[in-house]
Input
Amino acid sequence: MGGKNEMARNLLAQEPGRVACQAVAADTQTIAQRKPARHNGGTPYTVRTIDGGAFVIVVSGRVQWALNQLCKAGAVGCTPINNPAPRMAAYVHPQRQMGVEIETITEPHEGDFPGHRARYVLRPGISLGRTGGAV
Output
């Protein structure tokens, strides 16, 4: 009998603009193909280190937003309370992987749900700037 492949062929014949978005390997489950990236680039930033070195990183989306928040906050730093973000740690982690030195300070907080929160601060001496312009 037909199965998924026959049904997929019928759908493709019925809708001329439709493209097949699955790959089928022999004797394995159906594997979805990777979707193309929505954003093909990002904004390049120059990171200047304490020892005078410099390198360029390219960021976009929420990672870029978090980087801009860290730059604005300066030595005070950012917390998810003051700079609302669903997952601030998830936006800081890729920056660290790119070589940006970001310090995490754990501080207690009170309120209805007391506990600890993280404050993210660019290390002293680290400066960032968009390549070709100022932040």
Remarks:
- The chain has two domains: 1-35, 43-130.
- The beta strands are 22-24, 30-32, 43-48, 54-59, 102-109, 115-122, 127-130.
